[in-house]
Structures are given as structure tokens and as C-alpha cells.
Amino acid sequence: MKPSQNNTNNNTPSSISLFQLCWEFLKIGTIGFGGGWVVISLIHNRFVTQKKLISDEDFSVGLSLSQFLGALAVNTTSFVGRKLKGIKGSIVAAFFFLLPSFVIVCILAGFYFKFNKVFDFESILKGISPVIIALMLSTAFDLSIKIKKDLAFLFILFFVIIGGLFNINYVLLLIVSGVFQILFFHSKRNKTGENTLHSIYFLQNPYYLFSGVPVFLSIIGSPSFFTIGLVFFGIGFIFFGGGYALLPLLQNIFVNKLHWISNHDFIVGIAISQATPGPFAIIATFMGYYLKGVIGAFIATFMIFLPAFVFLQILISLQNNFKDNENVQAFIKGINIAIIGQLILLSYHFSIETLTPIFVPSIIFLLISLVLFFIYKTPPVILIAIGIVYGLLFIK
To answer: Is the pTM higher than 0.85?
Structure first.
């Protein structure tokens, strides 16, 4: 019996056709509002609980592998597709899951760029800014809950925030954070006489992963189909920590370094991406559309998810050797702490830009949004809709 046929439910890849797989993920991609874990729940309910095509054990393995690089929801769809229909299944699952969000973003972006000077988008932008700031702070808090608080956590957090204030290169901050966490991990292991720093070469020398990024950005000129693809492909290689972790990275590259998009339009892109049922990383679609229309949107979307897709296929093949590697886990932990620091810093910058001069109703709305995100886990799309109404009615 082939490995792909061997699961606890005794299902074979032929238990679902390729067309049915496309249809299932098109439906999930259309109704999956509420973030990655909502999508995960929908996938589990459909393929594990209802159709019994995948065992709980296999799904758990796929979920753990999907958290290494890229968007969790997209990676999980790719894993399920691969498990059921091989590489073809992996491709079509991811494609049809992203398709509804891609179409929605292109429509909303086209509407924004066509009517920007007719409708009061400035008031809308200021209305949703408290929600965006609250969302980033909530994400930073959620990420921090999953991470053990120790001296390394505090050091990396302080280092990244201070480094960001002094405009130290964001990618360099990620590298140093990942390396420091590995060194901190092994300093504790060495106290017990253990030494595990031997398994994966690039994690002994993680600088090689990113060493060319600052030079790469310095030679990129004006946006073209080629340069857009190149930049988003590079971003896909350092896409750790989930969709919201892209915020500081994209803002640093496209607003501060390349100057391809204004901070104003970047915030609009955040709002539009939140109005879709797909992953937050679909903001790449907005930015591609902003730069080069529908073709640019397709290139940006395809290229930002490509590295994680390829990496996941490799992980699936090597899962028994790779998923529990302590160096991998330490490096990613360091990067996740750095992302928390960057989200806090970005929230500060957005607050200065959009909430000054101080407007008391916006401050109150920010505090209410924080409560709704932190305590009640309110879906972002609801608060953004409220923010749009608030901006149109109360901000002039």
C-alpha cells in the first residue's frame, strides 16, 4: 500500500476527486472570515469530522508543519490537498482557497483607486486607524502568550524596539533575534552538559538566509512585473509568524525603503485585506494591484506564497527529521519575539501619524477596539465596518 493511502481512516486519495477538492476549498475560501484559526476549524470540520478523509493524527502533523513559514491557513490547505491528491491537490487547494479573497481585493482596490478623489476616503482611513492599531497590539499580545517569558524574550523585545526607533534594518533585527535565541537556548543546554547545535547548517549560520536582502533592496529600481515578483518572492522567504507579522516587514520595505507606496495607501491596503475571508497576507494582492493592476496583483500573490509552498512540500517529505528540530524552533521563536516588538513599534508610529492631533472619540474607539479584540475576540471585519461608519459620520 502506498504511504499516502495509509491513514487511520483507511481512505485513499481517490476518495475525493480533484474537482470536489477545488469546490470544497472554494467554499472555505469564501466563508472563512475571522482569521487563520477559523479557517483551520472549517478545514478540520469538513475533512476530518464530516468527510473523514484525514485522520486527527495526520491533521495535527500537518498543522505543526504549516507553522514554520508563511500563512498558516494557506499552508494547511496545501497540506490537506497534498495528503489527498498529491502535488496537484496541494496546488489547486491553495489556489481555490485564495481565489475569492483575490477577486474581492481586486474589486475593492479598483473601487478605491477609481473613486479616491470622489468619496471621503480620508475620513474612512482615520475612522479605521484605531481598529488597525488595536489589531496590531492584539496580535502582539496573542503571539506573546504562546512564548515563554525569559531573559531572552525581554532582551530581544527591548533590542528590536530600540533598534527600530534608530531605523536599524528590519531584516537584520530578525536575523540577530533568531541567532540570539539559538545561542540562549544552547547556553541553557550547555549547563546540563548537552550540546545539540549540529543538525542543520543554515541554522548554525542563519545569516546566509538573509545576508543578501539589504543589498538586494538597494539595487531595486522602479516597480515592474519582474521587480515586483522578485521582491515578493524574497519576502516569502522571511514570512514567519503569520499574516499580521508581515505588517512591519511590508511597511519597512515598500514604504520606507523602496517608496513604492505611501503610508496612507498602505493603511488602506490593511483595511481592504481585512474585508476578505482569506489570510491577512492577501494584502500582497492589494499592493500588487496598486503597483501594476490585476497582473501585478497576481504576480505579488503568487510569489509571496511560493516559498512557503515549496518549503512545505520539502517538510512533508522530511517531516520526521525536521518538525522537532530544536534549532529550528529556537530560531523561529527568536523571530516571533522580534515580530512582537515590531508590531508594538508599528502601532506607535501609526498612532502618531493617524491619531494626532488628539481626537478624544478616536482614542475612546481605540480603547473599545482593544477590549473587543483582547477579551471578546471580535472578528476584525466587524470593527473595520464600524470604523468606516464612524469615520464617515464623525470625522471631517
So the answer is: no
Instruction: Please tell me whether residues 92 and 126 are part of one structural domain.
Output: no
For residues 77 and 207, membership in a common domain is answered with: no
Least confident of 49-53, 118-122, 238-242: 118-122
Q: What's the rounded mean pLDDT across residues 199-215?
A: 45
CB 102 within 8 A of CB 295: no
Compute the C-alpha angle 230/236/239, nearest 5°. 145
Question: If DSSP codes are grouped into helix, strand and coil, which group holds residue 220?
Answer: coil
Mean pLDDT of 362-382: 87
Residue 112 resides in a domain: no
Higher-pLDDT residue of 185 and 79 is 79
One domain, residues 29 and 129: no
Burial of 76 (0-12, 13-18, 19+ CB in 10 A): buried
Q: Is residue 312 part of a domain?
A: yes
Whether residue 161 sits in one domain with residue 63: no
Does 301 lie in the same domain as 245? Answer: yes
Could you tell me where the DSSP H helices lie in 116-150? 121-145
SS3 259: coil
C-alpha cell at 45: 470540520
Q: Euclidean distance between the first and final Cα of the chain, in Å?
A: 68
| Radius of gyration over every alpha carbon of the chain, rounded to an integer in angstroms | 21
Distance CA 231, CA 235 (A): 6
Q: Is the backbone peptide bond immediately before 130 cis, with ω within 30 degrees of 0?
A: no
Asked if residue 356 and residue 240 are part of one domain, the reply reads yes
**75 plus 154 within the same structural domain:** no
User: Domain range spanning residue 255?
Assistant: 120-394
Question: What number of helices (H) and strands (E) belong to the chain?
Answer: 18, 0
Count structural domains, the chain. 2
Residues 137 and 231 grouped into a single domain: yes
Rounded-to-integer distance, Cα 217 and Cα 301, Å? 19
Comparing CA positions, the residue from 78, 337, 332, 304 lying closest to residue 200 is 332
